[in-house]
């Protein structure tokens, strides 16, 4: 009896061979437009040679960091060089011409004016750059050891056509925000010191108080992204002419477990430039005035201004008193019930509006860190008192006298068990001044008025 191979096995074998063939073809067959194919991690040296400007930039990778050896021992922009390396490792052209299809003289490749040399695993590769193509933003290029001429997109070539100045590090101070353990701003009149403790920011000088996490970290991001607009002078012998011998502003950072120190000094302002240098170094930078001024912050900016913080889920009751009105509310099964002056179900959303008004209430200014006499602020006999009854206790807000400050209508305020006297905008008081009938449905409101 003859034995037959089942049809489904033949189909599976055929499909497997088909997939393997196409996969291997795709993997092994290089594209005609592929110029270089090397592992980016193997590239250890790059030389950019511009025969028109006579500049030669030599870059070398040491301990995972790129350094400039020529023409100056400047710090370099690691991101720009890594982008260059990434592009070189898989460099692909728009089109390839076989030998004889184009003349090297016509392409500017007989005597190229620009060359990119790079070393990978002890082998040196060279890309020669010729003339601009007559069509679009493209250039003729070729490998030094190959007759093939390629058309390369101009935006790709732009990543390699860099001068030493283009590649110079412009960031004034390099760090990551999450590395910062301590921050200080020193002004002639005072010094602000902020420390990070267990993921929480605390101001430790000139007073001890909580820091504003969002503002502090926004400030650090602005500092991290601060870049030189101009390079004014390397190894300056006289810092006094830039106002950097006794700088009016110093920003200091302590980073990581070992508290590594980095600092930036800000000097004179001339027109739209602010002079700056790193602490301990004499390279003078010119910063954009607006960006430098953005880093001039006062204590109020850094401190925590949230005076009444709570979770809606934790609120079980509310007491609101002002003038002759004394109201008390209780939350029952997701509904708010007025308990005083009479027990009634409230209009949907009215109590929540009160809670939204005071949710994470922020101070507009701090008037006193601690006041023994509350009378000057009208807080000895507050015009409004609001108490939140929470799962784990109570929080009470007192509102005192109305004032005008910085062209704003404000009121003095204080939170029970907190020593600070602060101001908030007057709309807070206006929004809280509700009468019992404001919380009831219209029919009940009318009935209340008739009674």
Helix proportion range:
10-25%
If you compute it from the alpha carbons, what radius of gyration comes out, rounded to the nearest whole angstrom? 35 Å
Would you tell me the overall average pLDDT? 91
**β-strand amount:** 35-45%
Residue stretches low in confidence (pLDDT < 50, at least 5 long) are: 20-30
Structure notes:
The structure is a single chain. This protein is of the alpha+beta class. It folds into three domains: 42-167, Dna Ligase, domain 1, CATH 3.30.1490; 177-302, Sandwich (Immunoglobulin-like); 306-441, no CATH class. Helix content is 20%, strand content 39%. The chain is built from eleven helices and 28 strands. The chain has helices spanning 7-28, 78-89, 104-107, 154-157, 164-167, 213-224, 289-293, 299-302, 350-358, 427-432, 442-450, and strands spanning 43-50, 55-62, 65-70, 95-97, 114-120, 123-132, 138-143, 149-153, 180-186, 191-197, 200-205, 209-210, 230-233, 249-255, 260-270, 273-278, 284-288, 306-308, 315-322, 325-332, 335-340, 344-345, 361-362, 365-368, 384-390, 393-405, 408-415, 421-425. The strands form four sheets. The protein has a nine-stranded antiparallel sheet. It is elongated.
């Amino acid at each position: 009896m003859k034995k037959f191979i089942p049809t489904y096995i033949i189909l599976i074998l055929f499909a497997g061979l088909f997939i393997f063939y196409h996969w291997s073809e795709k993997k092994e067959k290089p594209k005609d437009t592929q110029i270089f194919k090397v592992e980016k991690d193997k590239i250890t040296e790059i030389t950019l040679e511009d025969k028109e400007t006579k500049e030669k930039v030599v870059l070398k990778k040491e301990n995972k960091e790129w350094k400039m050896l020529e023409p100056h021992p400047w710090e370099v922009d690691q991101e720009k060089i890594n982008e260059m390396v990434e592009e070189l490792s898989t460099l692909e052209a728009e089109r390839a011409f076989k030998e004889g299809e184009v003349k090297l003289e016509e392409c500017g490749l007989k005597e190229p004016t620009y060359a990119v040399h790079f070393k990978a695993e002890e082998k040196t590769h060279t890309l020669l750059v010729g003339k601009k193509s007559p069509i679009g933003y493209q250039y003729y290029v070729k490998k030094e050891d190959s007759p093939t001429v390629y058309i390369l997109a101009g935006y790709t070539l732009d990543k390699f056509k860099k001068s030493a100045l283009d590649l110079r590090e412009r960031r004034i101070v390099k760090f990551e925000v999450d590395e910062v353990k301590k921050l200080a701003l020193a002004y002639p009149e005072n010094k602000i010191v902020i420390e990070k403790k267990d993921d929480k920011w605390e101001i430790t000088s000139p007073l001890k108080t909580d820091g504003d996490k969002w503002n502090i970290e926004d400030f650090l991001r602005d500092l991290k992204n601060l870049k030189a607009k101009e390079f004014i002078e390397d190894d300056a012998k006289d810092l006094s002419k830039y106002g950097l011998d006794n700088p009016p502003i110093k920003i200091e950072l302590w980073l990581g477990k070992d508290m590594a120190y980095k600092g930036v000094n800000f000097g004179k302002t001339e027109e739209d430039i602010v002079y700056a240098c790193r602490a301990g170094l004499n390279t003078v930078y010119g910063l954009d005035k607006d960006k430098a001024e953005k880093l001039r912050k006062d204590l109020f900016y850094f401190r925590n201004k949230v005076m009444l913080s709570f979770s809606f889920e934790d609120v079980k009751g509310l007491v609101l008193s002002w003038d002759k009105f004394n109201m008390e509310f209780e939350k029952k099964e997701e509904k708010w019930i007025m308990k005083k002056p009479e027990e009634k179900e409230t209009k949907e959303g009215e109590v929540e509006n009160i809670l939204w008004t005071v949710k994470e209430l922020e101070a507009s200014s701090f008037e006193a860190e601690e006041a023994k006499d509350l009378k000057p602020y009208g807080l000895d006999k507050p015009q409004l008192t609001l108490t939140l009854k929470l799962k784990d206790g109570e929080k009470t807000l007192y509102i005192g006298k109305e004032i005008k400050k910085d062209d704003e209508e404000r009121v003095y305020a204080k939170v029970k068990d907190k020593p600070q006297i602060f101001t908030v905008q007057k709309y807070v008081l206006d929004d809280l001044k509700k009468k019992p009938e404001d919380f009831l449905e219209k029919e009940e409101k009318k009935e209340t008025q008739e009674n």
